[in-house]
Amino acid sequence: MSRNLMKGFLSIFSAKVITSVVSIATLPLIVRVLGPGGYGDFAFLLSVFSVLMIFISSGVTGGVQKFVAEERDEPNWKASVIWFYFKLAVVLAAIGFLGLVTVTGSGAVERLFGPDFVLYFYLLAIFVIAAQFREFCNRTLLGLGLEQFSEPIRVLNKLLWISIGIGLAVFYDGGVAGFLLGNILGDTVAAILGLLVINRYVPLKTVFGSVASNLSERQLLTFNVLNVALVLLVMSLYHIDVIMIRMFLGNDETGYYKAALALAEYMWFVPIVLQSLLLHSTSSLWSSGEHERVSRMSARITRYTALLTIVMAIGIAVLADRFVPYYFGADFLPVVAPLIFLLPGALGFAIARPIYAISQGNGNLKPLIFATGGAALLNLVLNFILIPQYGIIGAAVATSIGYGSMFGLHVLSARYIGYDPLGDFRAVRIGATVLVSAPVIYLMDTVISSDLVALVVVPLLGGAFYFVAALGTGALSVDELLGILAALPSPFRKWSKTIEAWID
User: Fold this and answer.
1) Which sequence spans correspond to the domains of the chain?
2) Of 139, 231, 264, 354, which has fewest CB within 10 angstroms of its CB?
3) Residue 319 in contact with residue 454, Cβ under 8 Å?
4) What residue stretch is flagged as signal peptide (predicted)?
5) pLDDT digits (tens, 9 = 90+) for 254-282
């Protein structure tokens, strides 16, 4: 990873760590405040909202991040791209807002979900506008390489919506509506701050009305349409199971299952960071013709992602029975079983994420659509078959298979595009690392009687043993470890020099 890429990674990674810590710390409080039923309704609303925003936002945000990052000879290229996507963002947000207001006003929402959901859906309509411009500004900043601004704004947004939502729920009996209002206010503040930063680097007075001579609106719109289809397929993997459980089983089961998903998805925070970074970073490499560099980078990043997420999956599986009741409360014991079934698929999806982003940066989205479409179809069919018969366990099995298929399908897609993300995967050595370390981590858990001690000691000692084993098997080389440490800020850089001197 180059120094510039590492700098962007650290900005996004730091923000992701903070937001993950905030999520981990506040999720039990949110669950307790809303209860299983309320949390199930909130999860259902966010799933519906996320599916809707695929059509409203995904083409805009993915496009502006990719194309504004490209280096073109046209002097006003970046301003022209921002102006094109800003206009598109306004139109699509207006359509989404009016569509939700019309459907809710017609009485359809009340008939389908009950009177409480009328207010919820009106709030979702406002949420559409706030979320559209928050994400537009965030992706523009990423495309401009301004991760040092986009990520603190993202953290502030997270803190605002959670604190406002909890405050309204606790002190004003705001419930689900309070958390929706918190999201709206947080996104509004983030959008305003994002626009102010963009104005410093690409003055908005030069953006409005700007059209570059080599700007092909047809090319941008084609990418948008294909990206919407692609994101729709990806997001169906996230949300179709939650929506089906709510329809087939009710809100309590939805709350249990969503809690299991939230824990499984903690494995994704490093892959999500890489995904956010690699879309615009590799777009510039692809456009410059540096295909060999892309291939080398993808092979190494895929292996690093696998090594990291595998140890996280082992830790979650070993500690789930201790952690879930301690974290969510005794009422959420049904979360443990679906969580275990979700882990294999979540692992496969985690490794696929950087591959997906690198392929997306190439701009040829058709292979990605076929690959993701296969996984989405498999996920849909299996959920439809298994949820009515086996409840949330069936949903977990179906989703795990769908998630896991993303890895194999996107490796095939990458090879079709022209690079091999498994060129340096070292599968046998990674497997040996798991065979050596997994029993030791399990044994650590069994010999510690205290839940709290186990939750602290097992991740630390187990993780250390795992990475020592990875060095021993050759899944990770000493030179690679030193290179990663050297690219990080102090004190990690100093550790690299100390280790290197000790080896010499």
Assistant:
1) 1-215
2) 231
3) yes
4) none
5) 878 888 888 888 888 777 777 666 766 67
